[in-house]
Input
Amino acid sequence: SYELTQPPSVSVSPGQTASITCSGDKLGDKFACWYQQKPGQSPVVVIYQDTKRPSGIPERFSGSNSGNTATLTISGTQAMDEADYYCQAWDSSTAIFGGGTKLTVL
Amino acid sequence: QVQLQESGPGLVKTSQTLSLTCSVSGGSISSGGYYWSWIRQHPGKGLEWIGYIYDSGTTYYNPSLKTRVTISVDTSKNQFSLKLSSVTAADTAVYYCARSYYDSRGWGAFDIWGQGTTVTVSS
Output
């Protein structure tokens, strides 16, 4: 079965750039999405179809996807960006989620 | 603005069937082009997709759960439902309903989520 792999945790200083990776076999041939989940809340999509940002999502969130790796980049990270982030892709009509990355802003 | 709301028992006995409903407001579940999914999250863990139903009634399930899962739709009530049979403590989780879509470019994201409902399985 298809798998997506994320680092369990990433730390970043306020104002710096955070990068969270998501790896999967030929992931670049699929569309990757990214979700932000804060404690006690439902996930919110921050990037879809590799690079698109939904309305209301700050411009500091961007995405890329090539080869076997999709990357979520948060430029000028703010304290409010501290959350769990999940990548997701579709494989043969099955939705696959990565294991999640806890982003700590310190 | 489409909104989703899960409902159902918060406690289910071991070996019984878990039943949840997702009510769709602000739009019709039959409007076309959307896939209505159930997703769960075990305590302190990541997200697991359970399955979806397309507005025509077509379903697709996570292979790891497909023998126990049934997703159905009631267009007259603008709802879709999840049944998970033979539950064990391992099915204890927060259950979310969510909407996704497929356009000319391919699959989109889960763009709308319910608030989630906690289900505990216990004897």
About this structure: Chain A has a mean pLDDT of 97.
